[in-house]
Design the sequence.
């Protein structure tokens, strides 16, 4: 009993710690005064201003577009890579997995800078394309590291059996192998989407003129004082994701849900 | 598993609708091409950009930077192909020496030629000796912004920023040249010095001050002073007008040891892809009504005499903060470019200050 | 044969976007402005300011990693002990803050910690002394812990969740008490998760520059700040790359340690 109360208090404290800043941002989004220090009264004007602010909306659009495209691309490339890696000899496999780990383990600043140097030496013009290339680069490892464990646990015989029973290699894959690795694929996709959405450092080094994601936009605004429309936007995003989560959890489904295995 | 796929579908749908809502494909080039502008953050009235686009049909791609030192590598690397940039005095000198700028054709820019005060072109000769490359956009001074209710004595010297009474209540600029300017002026030297002994002394002065400094910031000085977070801050004169309007307890003063008088100017890059549009843009910004609009929005002093004539509020028109009579002060200097070795020297010393 | 081809896009990608950029960093790091081979960009780490920045970053990130570990382990255990339906919701609740932009979350801490910020307003209302940690290393550690906590919680939670109930039951049946079960069974079996968590927290914490800029008032120079400024302000890419090479050394050490303690690659973030 004592244990459970203690546990609850502990969880509660951590919860408070995690959500205090978020609550602050939400409160500020309704603050009539522009500066963070004073409370000027309740207002919805920042929400209205948000929808009229084309800069922020553009940044939002870019962020979503980049996240969607890079995670889809990363998932496709990564899953295909996993299939291939499974058929490699142990030595080659270890090398490839080692290389795969590099973007994840390397400091973001080093990854960002190295990509910037690469693009410069290739003479590429910085813009949406370079950002996409960079994002896909750091997303693929998440996909591979999600899918590989699933693939390793599969029995190779089910696939062979399907082929023996007359399935072609492609349909055999999609009917037999794919469903089993699907949780890993989806996890990888979700992780890629999340990491891309929130990325700042790598985007900072590889973006071009006029293209901003939410993160880089916020960074430029940090110096001058964040526009309250940003608070409104983050509150909206947060509430959207929260609602999604609640809906998903209310939806009937198998007990083993969730992102983690 | 099922929940996961439901979550992902919901997510993708939401993302897709978010995309639809914010409207795809907004960036098609204007009928008369485009111009790519790289300017300081919050240094233009966005309405003027819209006005320009509507009147000329040229689309403006607008990017922002926080300091000259951040702008320079991007321009030098050439990866982003900007047309128009708005650097500060010494940076313009550096860009001229590194052959990054293209000469301006003032015949194509009548407003620039006629509306900007002659004295500013005179001053520009310090970094643009033949007035070939730059059109002044904003000018000003650097001084101390202080909160009357938190500072009892009269403020007239940089030395108050070293007063232990105000420990933890002092804001300094997070920029190597600006920080050293304050220390060098206080120590009685030129802010363009390359004398190692003088610089070493200035460095030690800064290190001495560090425990008293609340933070090294750039434009956050504004918000922090308005919010009463600090008693004293080093600030650019343009911000001073804005902060005084937001918080009546704030006052701006130019210290007696002298300070930096600066000019930010429009320049066109040598390999700018849209030179004609760039000239049209700069000239538009020099139009009296446009310059007035920008002045009212960003509150930085404008060198545009025609715009100044249009200011209605007499107090503003003759404000000593906005349009100081510089002959009242001595020891005013403009920054010079110190050469890459000089820059390296300053940078290394600044690192020593920061890491102390 | 066909299977191997499927991997071709990725292998090419590895070559162009992972290996080549690394080579570029090495190239810039080992040459000077005139293209001559030199070791001075790397040995520059030994200059007092750089060494100080590195040591400070090391100390702060180690402290932050340790705090994350201390906080996450009990949390993960509690999460594992919860009922099946509840616990996935709980896990989501802990990942949810990651969806709020990283910069904004860190900035929000600035609002909370400022002298006239929210926390101090509450404290003064309760007549308690002021909390002054903004613009000090404490604030930076707090920022690190806040931002990287989920990265420690998830791997540990995953590891703990994989432990078979039966093993614990068996230990109990054989007479072990709770503490013995924890020390001899739970802890060792969760090592992969701990190692993974440490890696995912230590490296970003060591190399951060945003957190020290926003919460340290730009007064505290960490190695990440030094490298970032070399690239964005001082235009000295050679020095920046040289210092980055030193950073990569740390990451390599980390990878080696991981491989040592987690041979089967069981500990995973996912």
Sequence:
């Amino acid at each position: 009993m004592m244990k459970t109360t203690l546990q609850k208090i502990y969880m509660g404290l951590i919860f408070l710690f995690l959500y205090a800043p978020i609550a602050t941002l939400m409160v500020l989004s309704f603050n009539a005064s522009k500066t963070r220090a004073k409370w000027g009264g309740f207002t919805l004007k920042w929400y209205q201003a948000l929808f009229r602010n084309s800069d922020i909306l553009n940044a939002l659009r870019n962020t979503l577009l980049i996240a969607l495209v890079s995670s889809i691309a990363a998932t496709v490339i990564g899953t295909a890579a996993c299939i291939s890696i499974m058929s490699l000899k142990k030595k080659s496999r270890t090398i490839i997995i080692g290389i795969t780990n590099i973007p994840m383990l390397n400091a973001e600043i080093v990854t960002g800078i190295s990509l910037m140097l690469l693009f410069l030496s290739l003479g590429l013009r910085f813009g949406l394309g370079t950002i996409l290339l960079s994002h896909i680069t750091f997303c693929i490892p998440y996909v591979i590291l999600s899918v590989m464990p699933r693939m390793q646990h599969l029995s190779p015989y089910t696939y062979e059996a399907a082929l023996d029973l007359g399935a072609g290699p492609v349909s055999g894959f999609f009917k037999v192998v794919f469903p089993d690795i699907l949780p890993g694929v989806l996890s990888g996709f979700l992780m890629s989407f999340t990491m891309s959405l929130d990325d700042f450092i790598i985007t900072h080094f590889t973006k071009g003129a006029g293209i901003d994601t939410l993160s880089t936009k916020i960074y430029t605004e940090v110096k001058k004082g964040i526009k309250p429309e940003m608070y409104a936007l983050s509150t909206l995003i947060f509430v959207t994701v929260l609602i999604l989560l609640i809906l998903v959890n209310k939806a009937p489904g198998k007990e083993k849900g969730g992102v983690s295995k | 598993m099922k929940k996961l796929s439901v979550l992902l579908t919901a997510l993708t749908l939401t993302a897709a609708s978010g995309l639809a809502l914010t409207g795809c494909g907004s960036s098609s080039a204007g009928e008369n091409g485009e111009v790519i502008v790289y300017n300081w953050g919050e240094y233009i009235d966005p309405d003027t950009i819209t006005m320009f686009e509507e009147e000329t049909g040229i689309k403006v791609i607008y990017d922002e930077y926080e300091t000259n030192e951040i702008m320079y590598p991007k321009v030098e690397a050439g990866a982003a192909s900007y047309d128009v940039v708005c650097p500060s005095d010494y940076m313009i000198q550096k860009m001229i020496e590194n052959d990054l700028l293209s000469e301006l054709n003032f015949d194509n820019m009548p407003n620039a030629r006629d509306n900007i005060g002659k004295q500013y072109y005179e001053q520009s000769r310090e970094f643009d000796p033949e007035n070939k490359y730059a059109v002044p956009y904003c000018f000003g001074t650097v001084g101390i912004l202080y909160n009357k209710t938190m500072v009892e004595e009269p403020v007239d010297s940089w030395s108050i920023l070293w007063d232990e009474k105000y420990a933890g209540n002092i804001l300094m600029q997070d920029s190597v040249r600006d920080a050293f300017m304050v220390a060098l002026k206080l120590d009685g030297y030129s802010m363009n010095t390359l004398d190692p002994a003088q610089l070493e002394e200035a460095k030690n002065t800064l290190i001495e001050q560090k425990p008293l400094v609340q933070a090294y910031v750039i434009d956050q000085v504004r918000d922090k002073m308005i919010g009463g977070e600090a008693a004293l801050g080093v600030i650019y004169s343009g911000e001073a007008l804005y902060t005084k309007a937001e918080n009546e307890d704030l006052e701006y003063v130019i210290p007696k040891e002298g300070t930096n008088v600066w000019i930010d100017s429009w320049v066109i890059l040598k390999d700018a892809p849209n030179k004609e549009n760039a000239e049209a843009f700069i000239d538009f910004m020099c139009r009296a009504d446009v310059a007035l609009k920008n002045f009212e929005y960003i509150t930085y002093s404008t060198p545009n005499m025609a715009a100044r004539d249009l200011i209605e509020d007499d107090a503003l028109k003759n404000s000593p903060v906005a349009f100081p009579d510089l002959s009242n002060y001595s020891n005013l200097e403009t920054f010079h470019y110190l050469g890459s070795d000089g820059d390296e020297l300053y940078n290394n010393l600044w690192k020593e200050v920061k890491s102390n | 044969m066909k299977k191997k081809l499927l991997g071709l896009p990725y292998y090419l990608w590895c070559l162009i976007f992972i290996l080549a950029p690394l080579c570029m960093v090495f190239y810039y790091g080992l040459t000077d402005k005139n293209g001559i081979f030199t070791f001075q960009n790397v040995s520059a780490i030994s200059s007092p300011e750089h060494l100080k920045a590195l040591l400070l970053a090391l100390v702060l990130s180690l402290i932050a990693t340790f705090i994350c570990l201390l906080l996450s382990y009990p949390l993960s255990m509690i999460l594992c002990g919860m009922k099946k339906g509840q616990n996935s919701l709980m896990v989501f609740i802990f990942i949810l803050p990651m969806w709020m932009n990283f910069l904004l979350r860190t900035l929000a801490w600035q609002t909370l910690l400022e002298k006239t910020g929210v926390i101090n307003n509450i404290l003064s209302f309760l007549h308690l002394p002021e909390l002054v940690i903004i613009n000090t290393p404490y604030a930076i550690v707090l920022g690190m812990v806040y931002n990287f906590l989920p990265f420690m919680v998830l791997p540990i939670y995953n590891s703990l969740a994989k432990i078979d109930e039966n093993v614990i039951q068996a230990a109990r049946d054989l007479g072990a008490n709770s503490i013995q079960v924890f020390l001899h069974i739970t802890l060792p079996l969760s090592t992969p998760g701990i190692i993974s968590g440490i890696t995912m927290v230590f490296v970003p914490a060591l190399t951060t520059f945003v957190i020290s800029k926003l919460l340290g008032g730009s007064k505290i120079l960490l190695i990440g700040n030094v490298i970032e400024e070399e690239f964005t302000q001082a235009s000295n890419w050679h020095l920046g790359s040289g210092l980055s090479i030193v950073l990569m050394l740390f990451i390599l050490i980390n990878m080696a340690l991981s491989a040592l303690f987690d041979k089967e690659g069981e500990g995973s973030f996912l």
Observations:
- Chain C has one domain: 45-261.
- Chain C touches chain B at residues 48-50, 52-53, 88, 114-116, 132, 135, 217-219, 221, 225-226, 231-236 (CB under 8 Å).
- The radius of gyration of chain C is 22 Å.
- Residues 45-261 of chain C form a domain with the MetI-like fold fold (CATH 1.10.3720.10).
